[in-house]
Write a structure and sequence with these properties.
The protein is mainly beta. Helix content is 5%, strand content 57%.
Length: 410
């Protein structure tokens, strides 16, 4: 059955139920409106760049409504998300930031674009089935929310927490709405599409300090992927704490292999030492196999070197990262935070050789207003420098200014 029809049918079935049964559906509902103003300036520095810069400014609106569940052994609910992006400044020679779609014929950025998504949900005990628009955040599929609007997927997903400490997820996705698009496309990877992406797995909290995860995903006729992960937090004397985050992926081709040969092993990990407002992190990422690390269009790869611009997931690439975070609440300035990091990637396999190099340096300065009429308003400045060589040819400097505010409607 078509997912949109399923959503509408479930919503219709809920309406004639007795008023007591609807109490939870209405009383536990909530709604919010997120406003995001995003300016992005990307200055290309490599020789022969197709355009000298990409520069756009836009305003985004995201409305979310989430109902509670009707009473009974099986509760019914309905969620909705509406997104609107509005161009404030752009042109055909400055397009391509990911904030705005553009007409493929004349390359002119659109004035506005939008999306509406509905999600039916059914709850039995501690399990919830969702059908319709989804935004999963799992190791094998994670939606993107780094521009004006967030990406969404279409499909079904079951989340179960029947066993204490164990969270299980499984489902199927068939369509994707990209972060800068009003239309829904077939699920896919790169330039090829698939009929469906199936996934299953879970996370088990062995203790409050230790959790292990396993997930399996298959993009039909393109790739199949296994993930194993471990997250551990260790309190240390003197107010220090050490967090270890280990991740391993094994990705292979599936069926007709529409995207060509997929053969990738990805071991990556991050270790973070915190004390007071300070956090120092070190990470590494090792690719092996003949292909790059695969992940769904419209999603983000679940890797420690997913940074502001790059992902460092090319075939055979070795990458390391050093990062420093500071929370100024430690010195009496709550809401103010700073982050800087450097990522270096080597030995990437390219069309011209096996020694491609790339590095990225990021800095974030953010402030969330703590009181008054503008309480909750966030301001963020992101600065990026990216360089590459030995068969890779992208060099750029970038600045992003992001203002965000979420208004609770009820």
């Amino acid at each position: 059955m078509n997912l949109n029809r399923t959503t509408a049918l479930l919503a219709t079935l809920a309406l004639p139920l007795a008023t007591p049964a609807l109490a939870g559906f209405i009383d536990d509902s909530k709604a919010s409106l997120e406003l995001r103003n995003h300016y992005l300036n990307r200055d290309f520095r490599q020789h022969g760049a197709a355009q000298s810069k990409a520069e756009e400014w836009a305003q985004g609106f995201t409305a979310r409504i989430s109902s509670g569940f009707t009473e009974g052994s099986v509760g019914i609910g309905l969620d909705a998300i509406g997104q609107l992006g509005v161009k404030l400044d752009s042109s055909r020679d400055r397009r391509g930031t990911g904030l705005l779609p553009f007409d493929p014929a004349d390359k002119q950025p659109v004035d506005d674009y939008s999306e509406l998504g509905l999600t039916a949900k059914l709850r039995a005990a501690n399990s919830v089935l969702r059908l319709g628009t989804l935004q999963p955040q799992l190791p094998v599929v994670s939606y993107n929310d780094t521009r004006l609007l967030s990406s969404t997927f279409q499909g079904g997903m079951l989340t179960s927490q029947e066993v204490d400490g164990l969270t299980l997820n499984g489902g199927r996705l068939t369509r994707v709405n990209l972060r800068d698009s009003s239309g829904r496309d077939d699920i896919g990877y790169g330039a090829v599409s698939s009929d469906a992406f199936d996934f299953a797995g879970g996370t088990y909290a062995i203790s409050p300090q230790l959790a292990v995860s396993y997930y399996y995903g298959k993009l039909d006729d393109i790739y199949r992927q296994q993930f194993a992960g471990l997250v551990h937090s260790l309190p240390l004397p003197g107010g220090f704490s050490l967090k270890s985050d280990l991740r391993y992926f094994d990705s292979r081709g599936d069926g007709a292999a529409r995207a060509g040969r997929i053969d990738n092993r990805n071991l990556n990990a991050m270790f973070s030492l915190s004390q007071g407002g300070h956090r120092i992190s070190a990470a590494f990422q090792r690719m092996s196999g003949s292909s790059a690390f695969p992940f769904l269009n419209g999603g983000d790869p679940y890797v420690v070197n997913l940074v502001t611009y790059n992902t460092f997931t090319r075939a055979e690439e070795d990458a390391w990262q050093l990062r420093y975070d500071y929370d100024f609440a430690a010195v009496g300035l709550p809401g103010l935070s700073f982050m800087t990091r450097y990522v270096d990637g080597r030995n990437a396999k390219t069309a011209s050789g096996d020694h491609g190099e790339e590095w990225e340096r990021d800095s974030d300065l953010a402030y969330v207003i703590q009181g008054g009429a503008l309480k909750g308003l966030s301001l963020r400045w992101r600065n990026v420098t990216f360089r590459s060589g030995n068969g890779l040819s992208t060099d750029l400097d970038e600045n992003r200014l992001i203002l965000g505010y979420t208004l609770a409607l009820w």
